Q: What sequence folds into this?
């Protein structure tokens, strides 16, 4: 569901014929096909409050779309411009934090300021950071960012907002701008198909936790395949009954296939340790084999004598194990 | 257009280095500012802004200009320092720690070379033997050298200070500016090389490996000392064959004797960089493989895998005729690297 945000009623004019007032404690809220439209009024705080209130009240909103005017600080394309990154300044200097919109194709940046800007020197200073200036977009984007929802900011850059005459001209043109917003919205967002997320198909007869699903997907992507080999799946299904255990085994096989060097090291260590494990020695390797510390533990009562237990430990091939952990094996 | 806007610190307006750079970058929008720090890094400018265009800042570096290099940085036995003459790089290597490092992808070029050289001179005076100075910690040393024209002034210093050794690190084949300079015995141009397909996949905008090899060959024939960094080594099923090919080409192009050293290192990064890579290059194959947190906190291939790769590449180099004393393993714990050799 979309949330369309406007600052002035006149800017939303072309959207309103299809809008119905929404019963909501805040005025200026409407339902429209596919979402909600709000008119917040001027300034960062109304913008932030309105968008936040709507996102809190309607968790089904997944996209915030803002349309409005901006003062042009640099040469920009004509018409509706999509914003890439938003900055904000409460005083004469911009804040460090920025918000990047969901439009990966956007190329222009915008700075939201607290007050209308009338100082040309200040405007030059701000133009180092962004080509457009407004007062509301950062608030809307901040709310969307806070709620982890997608955000698109669209602006029509106007030449200047530094003098009253231009402001009057802009008011007179608001109907034209509203039409431009509607055309842009219809072309880019109305009936927009939901982004198809590439979901992997999980094999039947296996049980995947979220983490395991992520791993499975990662292993398939790394191997550049869409699904695991059916023969491998059958092999695991036939060998193991329990779906959870099947998944663990499948992931282990895929991990080894993608990491043949590690798999070889593990195989060599298993071979080396087999006679000791057979005698009941528990062998614990260091985390990720990053150090040389190997822990052995055994139950002395399982050995005929203390001497034999001691000899078993003394004969443990530690150096060979360290060599393997250290990658010193030649054939894969 | 590269660098559509150039920001210049006001006090450098007539600095010869600035005027020279401006001559080579005509038609740009010039903006004068008090200090580059008023704009560069002032706001968080996402790395993705590189897709459009990045700005250039011409500035004066203040504070520490020469810094001690991290351990295992270069050939052991001599002190290693790096000096800062540029921030950020025009290349886009997916594993590079510079992405997001300065909170801006814009490039800063420091033109107060004299002060950098003065600090180098002071550093040199603190030691009795050779001292290494590395360029390229925060940028590629040669990528823009034809525009910045910054090496001649350094050449004068190194010509007069044979104890001082300079390393210019690059992934570029841009040797136009270097060819105008005489080779010095204490200056090494070191090329970072990867397997060809790995470079094509993960080192966007840098020169193709074959072009780097050719550039290396040209410099070698002109008498320049050469260094090679086979770092980072990234695992692919054909990795060993790829490095065999590379070792042969290195030998053919530069010959054994003009190569002063070859460093080898396996891919590694910290968690912060991993997040940045994920954000900047969604879905990259670089992060589809398994990493472990190593003893130093960095994410690396599991020890058997990375040590196998390092040892195998070292063996390939030895088989190609490169002497073992010129090969060193970079950024691995000494305990691991040398336990086998002892």
A:
């Amino acid at each position: 569901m979309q949330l369309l945000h406007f600052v002035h009623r006149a800017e939303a004019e072309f959207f309103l014929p299809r809008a119905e007032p929404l019963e909501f404690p805040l005025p200026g809220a409407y339902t429209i096909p596919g979402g909600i439209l709000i008119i917040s009024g001027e300034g960062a705080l109304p913008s932030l409050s309105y968008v936040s209130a709507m996102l809190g009240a309607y968790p089904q909103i997944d996209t915030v779309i803002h349309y409005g005017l901006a003062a042009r600080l640099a040469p920009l394309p004509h018409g509706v411009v999509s914003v890439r990154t938003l900055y904000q300044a409460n005083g004469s200097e911009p804040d460090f934090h920025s918000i990047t919109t969901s439009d990966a194709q956007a190329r222009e940046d915008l700075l939201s300021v607290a007050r209308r800007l009338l100082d040309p020197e200040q405007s030059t200073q701000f133009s180092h950071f962004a080509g457009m200036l407004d007062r509301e977009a950062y608030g809307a984007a901040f709310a969307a960012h806070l709620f982890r929802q997608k955000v698109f900011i669209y602006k029509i850059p106007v030449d200047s907002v530094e003098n009253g005459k231009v402001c009057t001209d802009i008011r007179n043109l608001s109907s034209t701008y509203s039409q431009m917003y509607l055309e842009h919205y219809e072309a880019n967002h109305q009936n927009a198909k939901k982004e198809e997320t590439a979901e992997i198909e999980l094999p039947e007869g296996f049980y995947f936790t979220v983490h395991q699903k992520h791993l499975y997907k990662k292993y398939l992507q790394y191997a550049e395949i869409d699904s695991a080999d059916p023969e491998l799946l059958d092999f695991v299904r036939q060998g193991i009954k329990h779906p959870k255990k099947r998944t663990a085994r499948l992931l282990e096989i895929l991990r080894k296939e993608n990491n043949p060097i590690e798999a070889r090291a593990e195989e060599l260590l298993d071979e080396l340790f087999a006679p000791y494990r057979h005698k009941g020695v528990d062998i614990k390797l260091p985390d990720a084999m990053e150090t040389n510390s190997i822990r052995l533990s055994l139950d002395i009562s399982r050995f005929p004598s203390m001497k034999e237990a001691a000899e078993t430990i003394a004969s443990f091939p530690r150096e060979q194990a360290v060599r393997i952990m250290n990658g010193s094996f030649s054939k894969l | 257009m590269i660098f559509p806007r150039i920001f210049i610190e006001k006090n450098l307006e007539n600095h010869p280095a600035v005027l020279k750079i401006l001559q080579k970058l005509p038609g740009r929008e010039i903006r004068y500012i008090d200090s580059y720090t008023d704009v560069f890094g002032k706001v968080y400018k996402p790395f993705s802004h590189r897709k459009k265009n990045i700005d250039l800042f011409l500035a004066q570096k203040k504070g520490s200009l020469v810094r001690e290099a991290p351990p295992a940085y270069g050939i052991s036995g001599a002190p290693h320092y790096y000096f800062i003459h540029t921030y950020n790089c025009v290349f886009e290597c997916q594993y590079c720690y510079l992405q997001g490092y300065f909170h801006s992808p814009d490039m800063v070029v420091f033109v107060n070379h004299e002060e950098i050289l003065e600090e180098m001179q002071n550093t040199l005076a603190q030691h009795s033997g050779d001292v290494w100075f590395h360029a390229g910690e925060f940028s590629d040393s040669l990528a823009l050298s034809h525009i910045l024209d910054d090496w001649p002034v350094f050449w004068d210093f190194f010509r007069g200070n044979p104890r001082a050794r300079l390393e210019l690190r690059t992934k570029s084949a841009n040797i136009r500016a270097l060819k105008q300079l005489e080779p010095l015995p204490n200056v090494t141009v070191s090329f970072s090389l990867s397997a060809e397909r790995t470079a094509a996949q993960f080192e966007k905008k840098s020169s193709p490996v074959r072009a780097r090899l050719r550039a290396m060959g040209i410099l070698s024939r002109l008498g320049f000392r050469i260094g090679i960094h086979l770092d980072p080594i990234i695992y692919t099923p054909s990795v060993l064959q790829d490095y065999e090919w590379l070792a042969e080409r290195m030998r053919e192009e530069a010959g054994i004797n003009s190569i002063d050293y070859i460093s080898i290192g396996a891919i590694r990064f910290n968690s912060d960089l991993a997040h940045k890579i994920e954000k900047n290059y969604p879905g990259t194959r670089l992060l589809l493989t398994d990493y472990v947190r190593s003893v130093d906190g960095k994410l690396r291939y599991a020890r058997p895998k990375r040590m196998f790769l390092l040892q195998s590449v070292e063996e390939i180099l030895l088989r190609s005729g490169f002497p073992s004393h010129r090969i060193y393993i970079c950024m691995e714990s000494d305990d691991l690297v040398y336990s086998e050799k002892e």
